[in-house]
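[audit] Reproducing an earlier prediction to check determinism. Same input, same settings, fresh worker. If the tokens differ from the archived copy the diff job will pick it up downstream; this log only records the rerun itself.
[audit] input (80 residues):
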Amino acid sequence: MNANLDASVCWSTSSFGGMPLASASESAALREHLVQCRRSERRLFALQCAAELMRGFVATRFVTTLMLVVMTIGAASLVL
């Protein structure tokens, strides 16, 4: 029984005792995937870093931050 193989990129998971090597098409597909991942993650990574920075700032100064929020709301209610 002979099976026809598709000519598209086929990933190999076994090296059959030899040195595992990726084909040129596998390397190109992986390179393109990594480029796309880096493009999509740039903005999200920057946003995540900013959120972690704010969380660290607020967590270490929770009581002060809470008082500032309460005072800001109180001042805004007096102005209105």
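[audit] rerun output stored. Observation attached for the diff report: The mean pLDDT is 79.
[audit] end
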